[in-house]
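quick q for whoever's on today - can somebody do inverse folding on this one?? i tried earlier but teh output was garbage lol. tokens:
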């Protein structure tokens, strides 16, 4: 092993608004050595995900918040470089929540195998990883759409949204995606087979929903919150269901925006709203991983990755999530496969 220096990104300070360069610091330490029961892993891909912004904020969460000086949290796809465990051998590909760093020595039970037969290894943190699982269970277990339902998904070209819409199509839904550029909207229709798309930056979302689905929205997979969600709520159909997956439009806000205030629609339409976390379905993830892999192999699910080259670029790429700079699942390529 020639490398001796491990690099890690820490949270230098809590961001105010959009994360900026000064909120991160790069720290160096020696590459660790695995001891009995551990594996030494080298990061190939670092997954950048919106939830990380919440962990930088402090306040209530399902998980501990970051304090200044703590390493940024996150999951990586990595290669085993040294194994002191019978569970893995050198060269095996795994994923592990080691944070934003290039190397780590961790107990073997803190890594999970990435099966290269299911898809390219980068998908282990994308369409076959946490975001894919989120789409699968949020749609099929929380929203439970029926064939013929109009399904609306926000952040539709992103890691979660693109999978939601395509599983919706597989299940016979009329799928409308909301996204932030004409290029993303064209991709939804031309590549992913969505029935309609709305560019929320240039179009009137509510008016477009009326035009595309005059009978209303049966199921809404909400990734963003804010004005887009207000517009979908205005157009809920009878017995409409909303799954709150995420509220990315609010993640950089110092104080939560008020709204929506149009909850009367919930009464009138006998509607439901339900939040969920991907971890609620952890025991069922393996079956979903195989099903999504099969859909990819059958050509029924396509996926797009936005791979930023170089560990140095992680903070700026992360900030881009909140501006819609990414087109597809955002990853940082840290070292060569
Ligand atoms: P992503 O969609 O790949 O990337 C984020 C996208 O959000 C951006 O590309 C941007 O696309 C859109 N966006 C950013 N700011 C926005 C705003 N102010 N208004 C509208 N859209 C905005 O990210 P992802 O990983 O798939 O995550 C999507 C959502 O799912 C996030 O809210 C995340 O927190 C949530 N999530 C929840 C769970 C769970 O367990 N509940 C798990 C994973 C993810 P545009 O160009 O289209 O604006
Ligand atoms: C996410 C947004 C929020 C996510 C998790 C959460 C795994 C959880 C928030 C909380 O418990 O406070 O994208 O992804």
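ok took a stab at it. sequence:
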């Amino acid at each position: 092993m020639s490398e001796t220096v491990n690099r890690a990104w820490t949270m230098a300070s809590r961001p105010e608004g959009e994360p900026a360069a000064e909120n991160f610091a790069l720290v160096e330490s020696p590459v660790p050595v695995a001891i009995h029961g551990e594996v030494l892993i080298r990061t190939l891909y670092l997954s950048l995900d919106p939830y990380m912004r919440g962990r930088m904020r402090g306040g209530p969460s399902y998980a501990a918040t970051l304090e200044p000086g703590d390493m940024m949290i996150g999951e990586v796809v990595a290669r085993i470089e040294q194994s002191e465990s019978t569970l893995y051998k050198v060269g095996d590909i795994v994923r592990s929540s080691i944070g934003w760093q290039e190397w780590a020595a961790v107990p073997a039970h803190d890594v999970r195998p990435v099966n290269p037969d299911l898809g390219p290894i980068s998908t282990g943190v994308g369409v076959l990883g946490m975001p894919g699982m989120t789409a699968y269970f949020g749609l099929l277990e929380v929203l439970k759409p029926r064939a013929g339902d109009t399904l609306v998904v926000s952040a539709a070209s992103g890691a979660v949204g693109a999978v939601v819409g395509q599983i919706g199509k597989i299940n016979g839904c009329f799928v409308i995606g909301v996204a932030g550029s004409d290029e993303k909207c064209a991709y939804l229709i031309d590549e992913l087979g969505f029935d309609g798309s709305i560019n929320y930056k240039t179009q009137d979302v509510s008016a477009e929903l009326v035009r595309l689905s005059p009978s209303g929205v049966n199921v809404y997979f909400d990734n963003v919150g804010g004005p887009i969600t207000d517009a979908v709520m205005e157009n809920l159909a009878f017995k409409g269901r909303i799954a709150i997956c995420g509220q990315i439009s609010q993640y950089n806000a110092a104080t939560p925006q008020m709204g929506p205030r149009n909850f009367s629609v919930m009464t009138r339409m006998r509607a439901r709203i339900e939040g969920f976390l991907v971890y609620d379905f952890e025991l069922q993830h393996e079956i979903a991983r195989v099903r999504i892999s099969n859909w990819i192999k059958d050509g029924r699910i396509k996926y797009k990755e936005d791979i930023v080259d170089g560990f140095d670029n992680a903070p700026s790429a992360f900030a881009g999530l909140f501006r819609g700079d990414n087109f597809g699942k955002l990853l940082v390529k840290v070292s060569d496969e």
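fwiw The mean pLDDT is 96. also The CA atoms of residues 74 and 99 lie 4 Å apart. so keep that in mind when u check it
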